[in-house]
Write a structure and sequence with these properties.
- α2 packs parallel to α3.
- The chain has a domain of 83 residues: Metallo-beta-lactamase, Chain A (4-Layer Sandwich), CATH 3.60.15.
- The protein is an alpha/beta fold and 136 residues long.
- It contains 3 helices and 7 strands.
Length: 136
């Protein structure tokens, strides 16, 4: 079986050299509190914002964990839209960003190139297709 580790927002668990910290996200959920995740391994840090709208503490989260790359939603229906996501980039500063949670079904269409255009003055935006990888 799989060994589960209990944790909550603000907590960190390390397993086999991989550290996972849970951080706040702003979203509704019937299954508990929404969260983002910070994953650290091999000297690299990833911030997956989770389903969320933009919020000011993204700046603080980025200052604390200094992520190399941030995955953030841009769908604009259930999460922030491309403009709001570009404001999140302004909060978090110069780093790599990967837009997620868009174009998976008809009501969440978004333009990742518009997000890139709005954000590229601050950070590097990497647009990927399903199944592609991001080098960190």
């Amino acid at each position: 079986g799989i060994k589960a580790e209990g944790m909550n927002i603000g907590g960190t668990v390390e397993v086999n050299g991989v550290k996972v910290s849970l951080v706040q996200a702003i979203h509704s959920s019937y299954s508990g509190h929404p969260m983002g995740a910070i994953v650290r391994m091999d000297g690299k840090t990833i911030y997956h914002t989770g389903d969320t709208g933009v919020f000011l503490d993204m700046k603080l989260i980025s200052e604390i964990f200094n992520p190399d790359v941030v995955f953030l939603p841009i769908d604009g229906r259930y999460n922030m839209d491309v403009f709001q996501a570009s404001k999140a980039v302004e909060l978090m500063g110069k780093r790599k960003y990967v837009p997620i949670h868009y174009d998976t079904f008809p009501i969440i269409q978004a333009d990742p190139l518009k997000f890139k255009q709005l954000s590229e003055k601050i950070g590097e935006v990497i647009v990927i297709k399903p199944g592609e990888f991001v080098e960190i």
